[in-house]
Amino acid sequence: MFRNSCKSSNTMTAAPFNSLAVLLLLWISLSTVRSQIPIPRDTSRDSNLILEVSKILCRARLKVLFVYFENQRTHDHSGEILRVVTKCNISYISLRKKNRPLEAVKDDGILMYMVMIIKDISQPLKLSVINKKSAAKHLSHVILLVRDSRKLSLGWMRASFRQFWSIWLLNIVIIFWRNDRMHIYRYNPFTDDFLLPVPVQPGKLPTLGQLFPKTIPNMQRKPLRMCLFMDEVRAVYGPNGQILGTDGLLSGYIAEQMNATRIITRPMSYSLHNQSADLCALEISNEFDDIAMNIRFLAPDTFQKRVESTQAHNRDDLCVIVPKARSEPLFWNIFRSFGGWVWLSILISVLLAIIFCYTLIRDRSGSWVAFQLISCILSQTLWNTPRNCPLRMFLIFWLYFGMLICNAFKGNLTSMLVYRESLPDINDLSDLATSPYKILIRPGQVKHIKQFLSNNHQFGGKIRQLMHEVPDQVFYNYLKQNDRSFAYLEKYHIAKFQVNARQHVLKGLPVFHLMSSCLVPYHAVYTVPYGSPYLGFFNQLLRSVYEFGFERYWNRIMNTAFIKSGTKVYHNRRSKNSDDPVVLKLEHFHAVFSLWAIGTGLSFLVFLWELLAHNWAKTKRKRQASMQT
Asked: 451-458, long-range: CB within 8 Å, 24+ apart, which pairs?
């Protein structure tokens, strides 16, 4: 009994200890699990922010969206935006934290929309995900979402925007949720405050155009550095700081539209004569200037990811300046007053007039008809007046016809005697390939010739054999001395100036001729540093310049200035001077030959009337004689 009672008492005392042990183990296990599982928190703020931003992206109907967030388990709502945008048929590329710039974001020239999600302001911005040296920065758009905005301040946003500006990213917006509504900020790096709040109306979402406007920025008179070297055609430095020419006037237009202070860097030519080289290449590649305002070839292979080009706005081919063709002998100028058809028409008119006169004349032995008609053309007097009316009427019109022909010939003969008709100039590649001229080229043009002028071309191989590479100074000396034993390869906008310059004109005639067909076709562009934030704005302004006709207006201004100085620059390659003597062609004498035809027709009708009247009178006399007999 005692044993049983002890046994029961032991059992009763062991039960609480077992219960305590079980509770202790349960508490330890819960504590361990609690340390591994995050503490639940209020996620309504994150959900509203993600939902509203997802609606903006869905309404914009983007094709591809980049989403960047750190690879941490606490960021459970970062994947929520991916699930939402997928329902809108938006493809996405999920980017997670890495130590180096991501290759997908380093692609040049792509239209990129990226969402960066950070927890709060204590999390540093990993801007190394975007490479500063990437092209087409105006196509990159970044939306920065701050999930917890309780400690977010205006100073933090300014510092963040300055970080983005350090890598030349302008299309940035910061979005956060506070006071039950969404707040959006973008920035203007040219103001002291930096911040630009985007107004959001209650119950409405901003569009993508409101988040990333394409308006030209107001630089608040901040400096805009431009590289512009002296060019005799498109950038002419004048007195009092004036810069004329299309490139010079365009630089002022860009600075005015952006409300910037234009600061010109004028690099001097290293060889003091070479206008064909891009002297601003080093300035732009080293980011000393914001834009090079001298046009250059659109040759992406030569940019080597150091400079970027604007949109193509003109053509500036490599053309050949050839010696002007020699003139024909002066002897044939006595016949050049009239065209060939005019001479043939005059000859046919004289022959028909002789036949007509021989038909009407009654004195069959008269051999004076041909000489009389020729003397009438030469404005000589008649020594025999015909008696019949048809010949008299015909001679009246013939005398007037001869006066017009003779005076027109004498009036045009004086100018033709001093005018020298030039032989056909070299305009085609076939003529250039068979010409005896050696073509002088600069060292910087060799790479372009090798790229475009193939030896397998029908005439390319022959033309390349004619080319001779010379230093810039030698090229300049030969051209300056008007050496017509060579042809010269030059940029089009410079070549059209050279062939019409006063120093290349002898006795009022040009020494050189610019070929109509050029060897190397190139688009003309301006260049900016690689990754420049201004490229999109420069393209907008260039497009407006050509749409509004400013470029043609500036060209006319410079053409007028060149004409006043004795030099004419023709923008039409096949233009002809209206002051040259004009050969009188058949269309100039329609009225004269029509008058001759009318006179001949009337005379013929009078002749028919006299013939019928004579025959009727003769028949009448015969009848009267037969009746009397």
From this structure: 451/301, 451/520, 452/519, 452/520, 452/521, 453/519, 453/520
